[in-house]
Amino acid sequence: MKNKKWTKLLSYYKPYKKELFLDLLFSIIYSIAVTSIPLFIRYVTENIVNLEKDEAYRLLILITGGIMGLFVIVSLCLRYTKYQGNMLAAKVEADIKTEIFKHFQKQNFSFFDERKTGALVSNIINDAYNLTTLIKQIPETILDFMVRLIGTGIILFMVSPTFGIITFGILIFLFSVATYFIPKIRQCKEG
Predict the structure, then answer these.
(1) d(CA 88, CA 91)
(2) Alpha carbons 123 and 115: distance in angstroms, whole number
(3) Under 8 Å between Cβ of 135 and 93
């Protein structure tokens, strides 16, 4: 049953595959750029300090330009994902509302006699908006989280393999505990 709901929910992306792909691609680029900025700073603090003055200035200018370039990339990707992501969400929301209104038009008059039309329309609008927000934010958030987690893991292992193993051990333990207890919490909540 849950898979049918997710399949139905994800089917709204089908007409907008290209927009979704570009949105997620720019989200990945954004995450990689944000994660790599500390590497530049680390390189400066570890290597440039020991160089001669002229060489240090030359490298510092190059690295500063690289960091500024990364910030430009971050800004452009963020702008694209926010704007195009919201446009995609608006298109999906329109599709959901259209489908729901078409379903409502097939209902008998007795359906509307038993319910207030204003409440129905209000529920449609609010539910469609909430679904759209969910549909837009879930892929971007999960992808951003995964890219940053993997990038941070690589950086941790580069800095200190022992610290990286300990950190990822803790994360795996917390993930295991969460996946074990979340279904139990849902069962208690349902009843």
Answers:
(1) 5
(2) 12
(3) no
Tell me which fold the domain 14-159 belongs to.
Answer: ABC transporter transmembrane region fold (1.20.1560)
Which helix (H) or strand (E) segment is 134 a member of? helix 117-159
Give the DSSP letter of residue 115: S
One pLDDT digit (tens) per residue for the chain, 191 residues: 567 777 877 788 889 889 989 988 998 999 899 888 888 888 888 887 778 888 888 888 888 898 899 999 999 999 998 898 888 888 888 888 888 888 888 888 787 778 787 888 888 888 877 877 777 788 888 888 888 888 888 888 888 899 888 988 898 899 899 888 888 888 887 76
Q: Which DSSP string corresponds to 26-69? A: HHHHHHHHHHHHHHHHHHHHHHGGGS-HHHHHHHHHHHHHHHHH
Report if pTM > 0.85. no
> What's the burial of 2, exposed, middle or buried (CB within 10 Å: 0-12/13-18/19+)?
exposed
Q: Which residue ranges make up each domain of the chain?
A: 14-159, 162-191
